[in-house]
Amino acid sequence: MHIDFIHSIHALSAAQWNALCPTDYPFIRHEFLAALEDSKSTTLASGWQPHHLIMRDADIVVAAMPLFIKHHSYGEYVFDWAWADAWQRYGFSYYPKLVSAIPFTPCYGPRLLVSPHTNAKDVLPILVEHLQQHILQQGFSSWHCLFPDEALKEQLSAMAIRPRLGCQFHWFNRNYKNFSDFLARMSSRKRKNILKERRHVQEQGFNFEWKQGAAISADDWDFFAELYRLTYLKRSGHSGYLQRNFFHRLGADLPDNTLLIIARHQGSAVAAALYLQDTTTLYGRYWGCREEFDFLHFETCYYQGIDYAIAQGLQRFDGGAQGEHKIQRGFEPIATWSNHWIATDTFRTAIDRFLIEENHSVMQYLSAAQEYLPFKQDDQA
């Protein structure tokens, strides 16, 4: 077995990389990572420098892990700014660090890819040992695996790659026939509130158009890219992480996974939301609007997505990071995880203590959030 690092996803062909993908989860596929890289969204200049870990048996790639050299902590959705500050106060540098993650994508899923004839439990210790040696040799501060699936989280935790607990809010399809069937599980007051919000959007004169893959035109993508830019300018004063061409590439290269919903007001497009999907799950990613309208965000980003998930028989709707307002709209609190290895013994001990305390607090938060779900008391999931 030979292990090395590649500095571009194009060092492997799409066929080589995708042969390792266990499902049609879109974010780990070669096309998605290539769209990020080729659009200059993940480069040394952007602070997301590709450094993917590859294992070969002779000339055959048997395992891979997406990996980036990070020079900041933006776009990760697992916040470690306080850790970086502590490093700096003691005269050390937290950056660069290594991150196994899908850039700008807080959606849990596969982070270790292995060939069908390879046992992940066999290769993971070898990869981790090699990675830790590489970190020490190159002077990286740490390694962080963000939003892994449950199996990888447990395996890394058993290897003292410490788990960190987070919380998101996801919608689950309980074999609903339609949106009304979903609402029937709710208490009367919560159900009426959602119906009121949807009715108000309809009365304002909105209609919605779903487009998939190749049906999304270049003009549609330009419109959405502009909305994305405007949203980030309003929130943070910069134009966002993703470049315009990234969105164009999605529809062309992942046509079966990419969806765009366009909201039109009196015939004019004023808002849009980007979704991706796989066999089981709908992923809400970004949204933007030219004008503010009451409840338009909830309709475009949540209710339309629930309608779509029910119609397509999808099991889950991942509406993105954070957002306690999702609870009252039927999104349930779930645990998400990351794993962390700190190269320096002193800081590793301090981070371990921090994670034990933080994980306890997040568990309490998850339990409390469960109490605010809008479903009838005798019909809690």
Provide mean pLDDT, rounded. 95
Q: Which structural class best describes the helix and strand composition?
A: alpha+beta
CATH topology of the largest domain: Aminopeptidase
Helix share of residues? 25-40%
Overall 3D form = globular
The CATH superfamily of the largest domain is known as Gcn5-related N-acetyltransferase (GNAT)
The total strand number stands at: 15
Largest sheet: 11 strands, mixed
In the CATH scheme, the class of the largest domain would be: Alpha Beta
Q: Tell me the Rg in angstroms.
A: 21 Å
Domain unit count: 2
Count of DSSP H/I helices: 11
Structure description:
Helix 2 runs antiparallel to helix 9 (244-253). This protein has 2 domains: 2-165 and 334-370, Gcn5-related N-acetyltransferase (GNAT) (Aminopeptidase); 174-314, 3-Layer(aba) Sandwich (Aminopeptidase), CATH 3.40.630. The chain has helices spanning 14-18, 30-38, 81-89, 120-138, 150-158, 179-183, 188-203, 218-236, 244-253, 296-312, 345-370; strands at 2-6, 48-50, 52-57, 60-65, 68-70, 97-100, 113-114, 142-146, 162-172, 206-212, 258-265, 268-277, 281-289, 316-321, 332-342. The protein has an 11-stranded mixed sheet with strand order 2-5-6-8-15-9-14-13-12-11-10, sandwiched between helices. It has a 4-stranded antiparallel sheet with strand order 1-3-4-7, covered by helices on one side. It is globular, with a radius of gyration of 21 Å. The model has no long low-confidence stretch (mean pLDDT 95). Helices cover 38% and strands 25% of the residues. It starts with a strand and ends in an 11-residue tail after the last helix. It contains 11 helices and 15 strands. With 381 residues, the chain is α+β, with helices and mostly antiparallel strands.
